[in-house]
From TrEMBL:
Domain of life the protein comes from: Bacteria
Localization: Cell membrane
EC number: 2.7.13.3
PANTHER family for this protein: SENSOR HISTIDINE KINASE DCUS, TWO-COMPONENT HISTIDINE KINASE
Protein name per UniProt: histidine kinase
Organism of derivation: Rhodococcus sovatensis
Amino acid sequence: MAVIVCAGGVLTIINERTNSDEATRREVIAVAASIANEPSTPISIQSENPSAVLQPETERIRMITGVDFIVVMAPDRTRFTHTTVDLIGKPFSGNIDRALAGETFTETYVGSLGPSIRSVTPVTDVNGDIVGLVSAGVTRDKISDQFVKGLPLIVGVVVAAFIVAAIGSVALSRRLRRQTLGMAPDELRSMYEHHDAVLHSISEGLLVFGKNGTAEIVNDEARRLLDLPDGPVRRADLPESLQHMSSGGELHLTDTRVLVVNQDPVMWEGRTLGDVLTIRDRTELQGMIGELDSVRSFAESLRSQAHESANRLHAVITMVELGRPQEAVEFATADLELSQHLIDRLMGSVNEPALAALLLGKVSQAAEQGVELTITEDTALDHAGIVTPRELVTLVGNLIDNAIDASKESEQPWVEVTVRDSTSELVVRVSDSGPGMPAEVLETALTRGYSTKSGSRGLGLALVTQVVARYRGTLTSEVTYGSVLTAKIPTEHTA
């Protein structure tokens, strides 16, 4: 600011000096022309004693106008008037050729009074003949004196401008530092470079929304997880379940991913500036959890069966010791035949070991909870088509778990499961003795957004919907002999 103000002051001084010279030129031309155009001037020049008539008049005009000299001369340079009386009658020193040609001009010339800006103009009679010349001028010393007298004002303005600029600079600096939290420009640049590198390298999605609903920061991972296009991102561009979420952590599902989303307000000095959303991908983890649940369920089933088998073995041994071997054989083989029949049927009809193990485990799990789970006779799976074993376990396991929970609301809980495939589609039908789920209730239950604070209840149906939607299948609900949920998936992928 100091450089700008000083440069402005120097330019003002230079401009003022130039203007001063230009104003002087205009002034001396006006004075010389006014005398030359006066009708009495050519008459006086042609009189017997021109000096006696013109000298008093030119001195009076000189005093009024403030010029340093007014010279009226003959075409041969002989002076009729001059500020210095001793120079009257002597030749004029300076250029007069252009004036003799009828032109009025100005020049800077070193004359009898020193360097001056002077004008020369011709004097003509009634016939248009040049009978004399008039020259008026102001010395450089006088011009400099007038210029110096004006310098204090210019310097004062420059100083005042510098003070105002200094105060403005300090005020602006303080305001900028308040807005940048006291950080200097190099610190801001360094922080931006570091933060930008971090934002694009972290494995979590990050979105920062301002009060206007437009994201001010969106990193690459957030665009990938939410399938966001390039360019500005608004709240309306997010999946519907994320558009109106509250603060805290929530589990959200998109068509292809399971996401953990946290939203927290950005606070500064008690004011809310916006919201920060962090997004973590739990798709693979959720699939592994589903498989782990199935394995755990199967393991629990084996444990309970082992415990039950030990009890039955003790009973059989005791019956033999009591001398009742026939009753012991009948007791030992009754339940074994039933369980072995189910195992043989599933292993023969279901050509997917993970699904067969899941169904066997769910039968035992349901029995432990007092629910009768039946695998229908028409259950048969040659090949699941485009559905992977993990997705098949997710689909069937979550439908069965929901059915078991729902069936407990009846006096005699039961669940019936059918899994079969054909040349065109895979069908999974799960019925239960629960109150049922009309279509409009199913639509609500499939909402993709559940609070992590209340556990994962309700997430099962959303995971089922995710698998079905991924392969453009259908999920329907009806209430007939019980609550029936049917998922149908084409065995071949269609565009």
